[in-house]
């Protein structure tokens, strides 16, 4: 709505999963011929925050017999960002183990970890740093590794 603020937009996993579940119920109400089809939830990257919550919400809705029973078969997350406080700090050890950087490089890059973790915690606790700030702080770890490792395809490591 132009000119008005929307204050009821969910920003956490529970709120988002409830909205998505309501959408799915409305969708299957409009398309009842599809409700018996196998249903999978998939996503990648930041969807790693929301897919487990939605999967749990669908399971709960089915268990409690809320609306249409969704023929939920499973979920998948590709390269999911589920917990940046754990994932980003692990990148430097992975890079050392795969001979992309040296131990000395790791020590230098690890100095960025407290800034990443702090920004991620502030973002998660709401009212703290913005998502963009947290992403920039954490992404510095990854970009420093890539700068040292050279022109590599991070999705194709042997």
Describe the structure.
With 158 residues, the protein is mainly alpha-helical. It folds into 2 domains: 13-78; 84-149. The protein is built from 6 helices and 2 strands; from the N terminus they run αβαβαααα. It has helices at residues 13-30, 51-63, 84-97, 103-110, 113-124, 131-149; strands at 39-44, 72-78. The protein has a two-stranded parallel sheet. Helix 1 crosses helix 2 and helix 4 runs antiparallel to helix 6 (131-149). The protein is elongated, with a radius of gyration of 20 Å. InterPro entries: AB_hydrolase_fold (IPR029058), Peptidase_S10 (IPR001563), Ser_caboxypep_ser_AS (IPR018202). This is Carboxypeptidase.
Short note summarizing the structure:
With 158 residues, the chain is mainly α. The chain is built from six helices and two strands; from the N terminus they run H-E-H-E-H-H-H-H. Helix 3 runs parallel beside helix 6 and helix 4 (103-110) runs antiparallel to helix 6.
Topology:
Blueprint (H helix, E strand, L loop, with lengths): L12 H18 L8 E6 L6 H13 L8 E7 L5 H14 L5 H8 L2 H12 L6 H19 L9
Parallel strand pairs: 1-2
Helix pairs in contact: 1-2, 3-4, 3-5, 3-6, 4-6, 5-6
Which features would summarize this protein structure in a list?
single chain; 158 residues; mainly alpha; 2 domains; two-stranded parallel ribbon; 2 strands; 53% helix
């Amino acid at each position: 709505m132009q000119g008005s603020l929307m204050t009821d937009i969910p920003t956490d996993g529970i709120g988002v999963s409830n909205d998505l579940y309501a959408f799915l119920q409305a969708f299957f109400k409009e398309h009842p011929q599809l409700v018996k089809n196998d249903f999978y939830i998939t996503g990648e990257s930041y969807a790693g925050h929301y897919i487990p919550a939605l999967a749990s919400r669908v399971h709960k809705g089915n268990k409690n017999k809320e609306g249409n029973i969704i023929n939920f078969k499973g979920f998948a997350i590709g390269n999911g960002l589920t917990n940046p406080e754990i994932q980003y700090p692990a990148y430097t050890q992975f890079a050392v183990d795969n001979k992309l950087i040296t131990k000395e490089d790791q020590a230098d890059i690890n100095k960025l970890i407290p800034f990443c973790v702090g920004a991620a915690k502030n973002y998660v606790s709401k009212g703290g740093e913005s998502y963009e700030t947290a992403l920039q702080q954490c992404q510095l770890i990854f970009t420093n590794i890539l700068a040292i490792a050279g022109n590599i395809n991070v999705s194709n490591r042997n």
